Amino acid sequence: MNINTENLVSITEANQNFSKIARMVDKNGSVIILKNNVPRYLIVEFGKVEREQIAADEDVMSISERLIMKNKEAYEVLAE
Fold this sequence. Notes:
- The chain is an alpha+beta fold.
- It contains 4 helices and 3 strands.
- The longest helix has 25 residues, at 46-70.
- The relative contact order is 0.11.
C-alpha cells in the first residue's frame, strides 16, 4: 500500500475535527490516523470496502477452483 503523507493525521486532530477528516476521505479516498506517531487506524469510504470484499471473495473462488483442478486426481481418490 502506498501512503500519501498528506493523508496522515494525528489522533488528536481527528478527534477535534472529524468533519475535516471526512472531507479528506471524500477527496483522497482514505486517511491514516496516527497514534503516538505510528499508523494505527485507516478510514476509507464504505463503498470501497464493499468493492474490495467482493474482489477478495472472487479471489478465494478462483484459487479454490485452481487447486481443485490441480489436485483433481487426489480428490477423486479421496471421494472413493
